[in-house]
Each structure stands twice: as structure tokens, then as C-alpha cells.
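In this section we walk through a basic example: taking a raw amino acid sequence and producing a predicted 3D structure, encoded as C-alpha cells. The instruction is simple. Fold the sequence below.
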Amino acid sequence: MSRATPKRLGRTVPFEGRVFRIEQDRVRLPNGRDATLDIVRHRGSVVLIPQPSRREIILIRQYRYAIGKWIWELPAGTLDPGESARTAARRECAEETGLSPGKVEKLAEFYPTPGFCDEVMVFFRCTALARPRRAPAIDPDEQIEPRAFTIAEVRRLIARREVVDMKTVVGVGLIAR
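The resulting C-alpha cell sequence is shown next.
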């Protein structure tokens, strides 16, 4: 099997938004055929595993408009332009849980949908949680309810398919070994 890569012949940008942009590339594939590929370009994101104790995880409940449901999930957020993943993890933890982490430990990074998107999700365990001196800014499009669960409770939510978010299933798997 050839390891040659496609050659880009042209690019258009049919959409550019606040969180991502879509690029449409015309490419010549290694087999000589031409194709059009749609790519979602994303700055990257952080997924947080806030642990008030070794036995607990904070999940957040929020409405996800794209799927039309309220769901429990790990807190997460997109990196701001030029922001490091570690800085974003600290910011997002405070924004979404109301608690600032004293310790932020990088666990892993994964591409959730590499077939059409270049987003990298960086997973962090957040511990030594404390109330911040100042109330964090909340994104205007978010209505979030944080709640601590035992790891066993979260596993049961996953088994009953009450947690339907893949990043949450992966994140819990990273710490529940």
C-alpha cells in the first residue's frame, strides 16, 4: 500500500465562524483521481476531569442544541486564540465548575473525528479544587449545572446510556483503571 499523500490543487473557505472554519480542498489522490474534501479546522479543546476526591468526578449538565437534549458530561471548552491547553484547562474548570484547580495533570490527547476535523482534545485531571477569589466569567450561550458523582455512579450512568458523550466515556476510562 502506498504511503503517498494527496496533493492539494486548490482551496475555498465556504464558512468561518467563532469556533471553527470549513475548508474545501480539491486534491489529487495517490491513485491519480481528483476529489473534493471538506475539512473542519478547529483551534483545539480541553476536556477536564475535575476530582474533588480520588473517588469523585464533577460532571456538568447542559443543553446540547445540536442533539436536542440535556446531557451529563465532563466539562470542556475550546482554546482561545494563542492560549495553551493547560491555561485553557484552568480557565474552563473555573468557568464550568466554579472551582479553580490547584493541580492540572495532562493525561492524554485524542482526535475525536479525524475523518473530517483536525480538532485535538487534550484531557486533564484537575485536583486540589478550591473556590476562586473572583467569580469566573460564564459564556453567554451556556447554562451549566455542575454536580459531583462517585466514579461508580458515573460508570452506571454510562452503562445505562445516560451519559451519551464520547469525550466523557473516554475521560472516565483514563482515570478509572
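Looking at the output, two observations stand out. The chain has two domains: 7-42, 45-175. The longest strand covers residues 100-110. In the next section we compare this with other chains.
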